[in-house]
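#structure-requests
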Amino acid sequence: MSQTFIAAYDGSAASRAAVAFAVELAAEQDAEVVAAHVYPALKPIGLRRNVLDQEMQTSLHDSGRAVLEGLDVDGVSRRVLLAGNPAQALHDLAEDEHASLIAVGVTHRRHVGRVAPGSVGSNLLHGAPCPVLVVPAGREPGPVHTIVVAYDEGVQSRSALERAVELARRHDARLIVVAAYEPEVYAGPAMIAASDLDQLLRGELRTRVQADVEALSGVAIETRVVPGPAAEVIAEQADGADLIVIGSRGYGPQHSVLVGGVSRKLVDNAPCPVLVVPRVPEPAADKVVATGAAGATAQPA
Protein backbone atom coordinates (compact mmCIF):
# COMPACT_ATOMS: atom_id res chain seq x y z
CA MET A 1 0.00 0.00 0.00
CA SER A 2 1.44 3.37 -1.00
CA GLN A 3 -1.02 5.63 0.81
CA THR A 4 -2.75 5.72 4.16
CA PHE A 5 -6.23 7.11 4.76
CA ILE A 6 -7.33 7.78 8.33
CA ALA A 7 -11.04 7.60 9.09
CA ALA A 8 -12.26 8.86 12.45
CA TYR A 9 -14.85 6.57 14.04
CA ASP A 10 -16.88 7.27 17.17
CA GLY A 11 -19.76 4.83 16.68
CA SER A 12 -22.09 7.37 15.06
CA ALA A 13 -23.81 6.92 11.70
CA ALA A 14 -21.90 9.89 10.32
CA SER A 15 -18.52 8.46 11.27
CA ARG A 16 -19.48 5.08 9.81
CA ALA A 17 -20.35 6.85 6.55
CA ALA A 18 -16.92 8.50 6.65
CA VAL A 19 -15.16 5.17 7.12
CA ALA A 20 -17.20 3.57 4.34
CA PHE A 21 -16.44 6.39 1.89
CA ALA A 22 -12.74 6.30 2.79
CA VAL A 23 -12.73 2.58 1.99
CA GLU A 24 -14.40 3.20 -1.37
CA LEU A 25 -11.86 5.88 -2.29
CA ALA A 26 -8.97 3.74 -1.07
CA ALA A 27 -9.98 0.89 -3.37
CA GLU A 28 -9.24 3.13 -6.38
CA GLN A 29 -6.10 4.77 -5.00
CA ASP A 30 -3.87 1.98 -3.73
CA ALA A 31 -4.43 3.01 -0.12
CA GLU A 32 -5.06 1.37 3.19
CA VAL A 33 -7.67 2.66 5.62
CA VAL A 34 -6.90 3.08 9.30
CA ALA A 35 -10.00 3.48 11.47
CA ALA A 36 -9.16 5.56 14.53
CA HIS A 37 -11.18 6.06 17.70
CA VAL A 38 -10.11 8.63 20.29
CA TYR A 39 -11.32 8.41 23.87
CA PRO A 40 -10.82 11.09 26.56
CA ALA A 41 -7.61 11.06 28.55
CA LEU A 42 -8.14 12.12 32.14
CA LYS A 43 -5.59 14.55 33.48
CA PRO A 44 -3.96 13.44 36.75
CA ILE A 45 -4.47 15.66 39.75
CA GLY A 46 -1.20 16.23 41.56
CA LEU A 47 1.71 13.90 41.05
CA ARG A 48 -0.22 10.72 40.57
CA ARG A 49 -3.63 9.48 39.61
CA ASN A 50 -5.89 8.12 42.35
CA VAL A 51 -7.54 4.71 42.17
CA LEU A 52 -10.92 6.11 41.04
CA ASP A 53 -9.29 8.00 38.18
CA GLN A 54 -7.44 4.88 37.11
CA GLU A 55 -10.68 2.91 37.07
CA MET A 56 -12.43 5.60 35.05
CA GLN A 57 -9.57 5.74 32.56
CA THR A 58 -9.64 1.96 32.19
CA SER A 59 -13.40 2.09 31.63
CA LEU A 60 -13.01 4.77 28.94
CA HIS A 61 -10.30 2.70 27.27
CA ASP A 62 -12.42 -0.45 27.28
CA SER A 63 -15.47 1.42 25.98
CA GLY A 64 -13.41 2.94 23.19
CA ARG A 65 -12.02 -0.45 22.25
CA ALA A 66 -15.55 -1.87 22.13
CA VAL A 67 -16.67 0.95 19.82
CA LEU A 68 -13.76 0.34 17.49
CA GLU A 69 -14.25 -3.42 17.47
CA GLY A 70 -17.94 -2.89 16.67
CA LEU A 71 -17.14 -1.15 13.37
CA ASP A 72 -18.77 -3.27 10.67
CA VAL A 73 -17.23 -1.82 7.49
CA ASP A 74 -15.26 -4.22 5.30
CA GLY A 75 -11.98 -3.00 3.88
CA VAL A 76 -10.49 -1.43 7.01
CA SER A 77 -6.84 -2.46 7.20
CA ARG A 78 -6.09 -1.43 10.77
CA ARG A 79 -7.87 -0.10 13.83
CA VAL A 80 -6.14 2.33 16.15
CA LEU A 81 -7.28 3.31 19.64
CA LEU A 82 -6.00 6.65 20.93
CA ALA A 83 -6.44 8.74 24.06
CA GLY A 84 -6.54 12.51 24.23
CA ASN A 85 -8.08 15.45 22.40
CA PRO A 86 -9.74 13.94 19.29
CA ALA A 87 -8.64 16.57 16.76
CA GLN A 88 -5.08 16.71 18.07
CA ALA A 89 -4.81 12.92 18.29
CA LEU A 90 -6.00 12.51 14.70
CA HIS A 91 -3.65 15.28 13.56
CA ASP A 92 -0.69 13.57 15.24
CA LEU A 93 -1.68 10.17 13.84
CA ALA A 94 -1.88 11.65 10.34
CA GLU A 95 1.64 13.03 10.70
CA ASP A 96 3.01 9.77 12.11
CA GLU A 97 1.40 7.74 9.33
CA HIS A 98 2.22 10.30 6.61
CA ALA A 99 -1.47 10.08 5.79
CA SER A 100 -2.87 11.24 2.47
CA LEU A 101 -6.38 11.81 3.82
CA ILE A 102 -8.38 12.24 7.02
CA ALA A 103 -12.08 11.40 6.76
CA VAL A 104 -14.55 12.64 9.38
CA GLY A 105 -18.29 12.26 9.61
CA VAL A 106 -20.57 15.17 10.44
CA THR A 107 -24.21 15.23 11.39
CA HIS A 108 -26.52 17.58 9.53
CA ARG A 109 -27.80 20.23 11.93
CA ARG A 110 -30.73 22.05 10.45
CA HIS A 111 -30.31 25.86 10.34
CA VAL A 112 -26.92 25.78 12.08
CA GLY A 113 -24.82 23.85 9.60
CA ARG A 114 -23.03 20.54 9.88
CA VAL A 115 -19.65 21.23 11.43
CA ALA A 116 -20.16 22.77 14.85
CA PRO A 117 -17.50 25.24 16.07
CA GLY A 118 -15.05 23.46 18.35
CA SER A 119 -15.97 20.02 17.01
CA VAL A 120 -13.45 17.46 15.79
CA GLY A 121 -14.27 18.26 12.17
CA SER A 122 -14.05 22.00 12.72
CA ASN A 123 -10.67 21.76 14.46
CA LEU A 124 -9.25 19.46 11.80
CA LEU A 125 -10.29 21.92 9.12
CA HIS A 126 -8.01 24.48 10.75
CA GLY A 127 -4.58 22.96 10.37
CA ALA A 128 -4.77 19.31 9.27
CA PRO A 129 -1.55 18.16 7.57
CA CYS A 130 -3.37 16.51 4.65
CA PRO A 131 -6.69 16.76 2.79
CA VAL A 132 -9.79 16.47 4.97
CA LEU A 133 -12.86 14.66 3.70
CA VAL A 134 -16.07 15.77 5.43
CA VAL A 135 -18.85 13.21 5.01
CA PRO A 136 -22.50 13.84 6.00
CA ALA A 137 -24.37 11.15 7.90
CA GLY A 138 -26.86 10.56 5.10
CA ARG A 139 -24.25 9.64 2.51
CA GLU A 140 -25.21 6.34 0.86
CA PRO A 141 -22.52 3.88 -0.31
CA GLY A 142 -21.93 3.88 -4.04
CA PRO A 143 -19.46 4.69 -6.79
CA VAL A 144 -18.29 8.22 -7.49
CA HIS A 145 -19.89 9.22 -10.81
CA THR A 146 -19.81 13.04 -10.60
CA ILE A 147 -17.26 15.35 -8.99
CA VAL A 148 -17.72 19.11 -8.65
CA VAL A 149 -14.70 21.36 -8.13
CA ALA A 150 -14.87 25.01 -7.08
CA TYR A 151 -12.65 27.22 -9.23
CA ASP A 152 -11.83 30.92 -8.87
CA GLU A 153 -8.67 31.13 -11.02
CA GLY A 154 -6.48 31.31 -7.91
CA VAL A 155 -3.49 29.14 -6.98
CA GLN A 156 -5.41 27.18 -4.33
CA SER A 157 -8.34 26.43 -6.61
CA ARG A 158 -5.90 25.32 -9.30
CA SER A 159 -4.50 22.80 -6.81
CA ALA A 160 -8.05 21.64 -6.07
CA LEU A 161 -8.74 21.32 -9.79
CA GLU A 162 -5.68 19.14 -10.28
CA ARG A 163 -6.74 16.91 -7.38
CA ALA A 164 -10.28 16.68 -8.76
CA VAL A 165 -8.99 15.70 -12.20
CA GLU A 166 -6.86 12.98 -10.63
CA LEU A 167 -9.88 11.63 -8.73
CA ALA A 168 -12.08 11.80 -11.81
CA ARG A 169 -9.56 9.76 -13.77
CA ARG A 170 -9.25 7.13 -11.06
CA HIS A 171 -13.01 6.77 -10.68
CA ASP A 172 -13.89 7.29 -14.35
CA ALA A 173 -16.11 10.11 -13.14
CA ARG A 174 -17.57 13.17 -14.79
CA LEU A 175 -16.00 16.44 -13.62
CA ILE A 176 -17.89 19.72 -13.33
CA VAL A 177 -15.83 22.89 -12.87
CA VAL A 178 -17.92 25.60 -11.22
CA ALA A 179 -16.81 29.24 -11.29
CA ALA A 180 -19.04 31.63 -9.36
CA TYR A 181 -18.90 35.38 -9.84
CA GLU A 182 -20.63 38.39 -8.36
CA PRO A 183 -22.43 40.49 -11.02
CA GLU A 184 -20.94 43.98 -11.20
CA VAL A 185 -22.94 47.20 -11.20
CA TYR A 186 -21.90 49.44 -14.10
CA ALA A 187 -22.04 53.16 -13.32
CA GLY A 188 -20.02 54.61 -16.20
CA PRO A 189 -21.14 57.22 -18.74
CA ALA A 190 -21.70 54.78 -21.60
CA MET A 191 -25.13 53.28 -21.99
CA ILE A 192 -25.07 49.52 -21.68
CA ALA A 193 -27.79 47.19 -20.49
CA ALA A 194 -27.06 45.35 -17.26
CA SER A 195 -27.91 42.06 -18.97
CA ASP A 196 -25.41 42.78 -21.75
CA LEU A 197 -22.68 43.63 -19.27
CA ASP A 198 -23.38 40.47 -17.29
CA GLN A 199 -23.24 38.38 -20.44
CA LEU A 200 -19.93 39.98 -21.39
CA LEU A 201 -18.38 39.35 -17.97
CA ARG A 202 -19.63 35.78 -17.91
CA GLY A 203 -18.25 35.14 -21.39
CA GLU A 204 -14.82 36.49 -20.49
CA LEU A 205 -14.69 34.42 -17.31
CA ARG A 206 -15.82 31.28 -19.14
CA THR A 207 -13.07 31.79 -21.74
CA ARG A 208 -10.40 32.08 -19.05
CA VAL A 209 -11.66 29.09 -17.08
CA GLN A 210 -11.91 26.90 -20.17
CA ALA A 211 -8.36 27.89 -21.12
CA ASP A 212 -7.19 26.76 -17.67
CA VAL A 213 -8.82 23.32 -17.99
CA GLU A 214 -7.94 22.65 -21.64
CA ALA A 215 -4.56 21.21 -20.69
CA LEU A 216 -6.23 18.70 -18.36
CA SER A 217 -7.10 15.84 -20.70
CA GLY A 218 -8.32 12.30 -20.20
CA VAL A 219 -11.51 13.17 -18.35
CA ALA A 220 -14.86 14.63 -19.33
CA ILE A 221 -14.97 18.20 -18.01
CA GLU A 222 -17.98 20.49 -18.00
CA THR A 223 -17.52 24.17 -17.18
CA ARG A 224 -20.25 26.18 -15.48
CA VAL A 225 -19.96 29.92 -14.86
CA VAL A 226 -22.77 31.04 -12.55
CA PRO A 227 -23.54 34.39 -10.91
CA GLY A 228 -24.04 34.55 -7.17
CA PRO A 229 -22.28 33.96 -3.83
CA ALA A 230 -19.66 31.25 -4.29
CA ALA A 231 -20.70 28.87 -1.51
CA GLU A 232 -24.37 28.97 -2.50
CA VAL A 233 -23.62 28.57 -6.20
CA ILE A 234 -21.31 25.60 -5.69
CA ALA A 235 -23.76 23.86 -3.33
CA GLU A 236 -26.59 24.32 -5.83
CA GLN A 237 -24.51 23.10 -8.76
CA ALA A 238 -23.44 20.06 -6.73
CA ASP A 239 -27.00 18.80 -6.31
CA GLY A 240 -26.83 15.15 -7.35
CA ALA A 241 -23.02 15.07 -7.29
CA ASP A 242 -21.02 12.51 -5.32
CA LEU A 243 -18.14 14.73 -4.18
CA ILE A 244 -17.12 18.39 -4.01
CA VAL A 245 -13.44 19.37 -4.10
CA ILE A 246 -12.36 22.81 -2.90
CA GLY A 247 -9.01 24.42 -2.18
CA SER A 248 -7.99 25.55 1.27
CA ARG A 249 -7.98 29.28 2.02
CA GLY A 250 -6.28 31.35 4.68
CA TYR A 251 -2.66 32.22 5.36
CA GLY A 252 -1.46 29.62 7.85
CA PRO A 253 1.17 26.90 7.39
CA GLN A 254 1.66 25.63 3.86
CA HIS A 255 0.44 22.09 3.14
CA SER A 256 -2.17 22.42 5.88
CA VAL A 257 -5.94 22.69 5.60
CA LEU A 258 -7.18 26.15 6.57
CA VAL A 259 -10.75 26.96 5.63
CA GLY A 260 -11.97 30.42 4.70
CA GLY A 261 -15.47 31.82 4.51
CA VAL A 262 -16.46 30.11 1.26
CA SER A 263 -15.07 26.69 2.09
CA ARG A 264 -16.53 26.80 5.60
CA LYS A 265 -20.02 27.64 4.32
CA LEU A 266 -19.73 24.97 1.68
CA VAL A 267 -18.69 22.30 4.18
CA ASP A 268 -21.62 23.32 6.38
CA ASN A 269 -24.24 23.22 3.65
CA ALA A 270 -23.07 20.96 0.82
CA PRO A 271 -25.43 18.18 -0.31
CA CYS A 272 -22.59 15.65 -0.55
CA PRO A 273 -19.11 14.94 0.89
CA VAL A 274 -16.55 17.75 0.59
CA LEU A 275 -12.81 17.26 0.15
CA VAL A 276 -10.77 20.26 1.35
CA VAL A 277 -7.30 20.31 -0.21
CA PRO A 278 -4.38 21.79 1.80
CA ARG A 279 -2.71 25.04 0.85
CA VAL A 280 0.11 25.06 -1.67
CA PRO A 281 2.87 27.67 -1.96
CA GLU A 282 1.80 30.83 -3.77
CA PRO A 283 3.91 33.18 -5.89
CA ALA A 284 5.08 36.25 -3.99
CA ALA A 285 3.03 38.47 -6.28
CA ASP A 286 -0.17 36.82 -5.09
CA LYS A 287 0.64 37.73 -1.50
CA VAL A 288 1.13 41.46 -2.02
CA VAL A 289 -1.38 43.36 0.10
CA ALA A 290 -2.82 46.51 -1.48
CA THR A 291 -2.42 49.77 0.43
CA GLY A 292 -4.70 52.74 -0.16
CA ALA A 293 -3.69 56.38 -0.33
CA ALA A 294 -4.55 56.89 3.31
CA GLY A 295 -2.40 53.91 4.36
CA ALA A 296 -5.32 51.56 4.97
CA THR A 297 -4.45 47.92 4.31
CA ALA A 298 -6.90 45.70 2.46
CA GLN A 299 -7.46 42.42 4.25
CA PRO A 300 -7.84 39.16 2.33
CA ALA A 301 -11.38 37.78 2.12
